Amino acid sequence: MQETKKTQKKKDWFIVKSLVSKDFKIKYRRSILGVLWSVLNPLLMMIVLTAVFSYMFKFDIEFFPVYLILGQTLFNFMSGSTTDAMTSIIDSAPLIKKIRINKIIFPFEKVLFGLLNFAISLIAVAAVLIFFRISPTANILLLPVLLLELFMFTLGLGLILSALTVFFRDIEHLWSVIATAWMYLTPLFYPTSILQDWMMRIMEFNPMYYYVNYFREIALWGTTPAISEQLICLGCGAVALAIGYLIFKKVEKKFILYV
Fold first, then answer.
1. Cα–Cα distance between 246 and 131 in angstroms, integer?
2. Residue 165: pLDDT above 90?
3. Cα angle 206-114-47, degrees, rounded to a multiple of 5
4. Averaged pLDDT of the chain
5. Sign of the C-alpha dihedral, residues 147, 148, 152, 153?
6. What's the gap between Cα 177 and its chain centre?
7. Which residue has the higher pLDDT, 14 or 234?
8. Tens-place pLDDT, residues 176-195
9. Which end of the chain is less congested by CB atoms within 10 angstroms, N or C?
10. CA–CA separation, 122 and 114 (whole Å)
């Protein structure tokens, strides 16, 4: 039995690696700049948004481009990964119908691929930090902890969305609206100082607010996130993953009837 589980895990991991490789090739197929786009894209978006918003907030945010790119890249990882994971079961319908396979692999692979793209975009983040002569402190070593917690949170959302989308295709359209609204409700390009007290109370229920702030603390401000903040990030990730896993496992046997 134990040998069978080990064999299954090796098979699952082989499939995950194959899918990541396939997505990587598809993403950069017929692209002249290839992987370089994962670096250029956050830089170009930072330049555009800086040109639009820096005048408005130049007295409130020091190193505004750095502030912006840190929040932007982290949020895009969550948003992009959940969007891809959402349709992962539907898109894999031909494979699911042909062979017996662990279906949770598909949303997991999409989030893992999103993490890979985020890792590449960190080159752009590092370039901006160097440009503004911001030296990293020992707190940057907490980045893997942050990424693990955000990975758990994103995977949890991805599992929920991928499961629900099989039965309710309107989720695809609804999620794009929610993700856009979530982006504006997260302080990516504006300071929290402009928010009124009642707005900040609402912000405290936004998990991405804590993840983005965590990233800025360790990369921009060189400070150690408070224990309470670290526990919130860990708690949001663990709860989202647990709920996502339970929902996915409960309904996955019905996928074959709807895909």
1. 45
2. yes
3. 75
4. 89
5. negative
6. 17
7. 234
8. 999 999 999 999 988 888 88
9. N
10. 13
What one-letter code names the amino acid at 243?
I
Measured CA angle at 71 (ends 179, 34), to 5 deg = 85
Residue type, 145: V
Per-residue pLDDT, averaged over 194-203, amounts to 91
- Residue 138 has a pLDDT of 95
- Mean per-residue pLDDT, 148-161: 98
Angle at 113 between CA 108 and CA 118, to 5 degrees: 125
Q: Per residue, what are the HEC states of the chain?
A: CHHHHHHHHHHHHHHHHHHHHHHHHHHCCCCCCCCHHHHHHHHHHHHHHHHHHHHHHCCCCCCHHHHHHHHHHHHHHHHHHHHHHHCHHHHCHHHHHHCCCCCCHHHHHHHHHHHHHHHHHHHHHHHHHHHCCCCCCHHHHHHHHHHHHHHHHHHHHHHHHHHHHHHCCCHHHHHHHHHHHHHHHCCCCCCHHHCCHHHHHHHCCCHHHHHHHHHHHHHCCCCCCCHHHHHHHHHHHHHHHHHHHHHHHHHHHHHHHHC
What is the identity of the amino acid at 181?
A
Give residue 30's pLDDT. Answer: 63
Give burial (CB, 10 Å; 0-12/13-18/19+) of 92. Answer: buried
* Cβ-count burial 139-165 (b if 16+ within 10 Å, e if not): eeebeeebbebbbbbbbbbbbbbbbbb
Confidence of residue 58 (pLDDT cuts 50, 70, 90): low
pTM of the model: 0.91
Q: Specify the amino acid at residue 29.
A: R
CA distance 123 to 30: 22
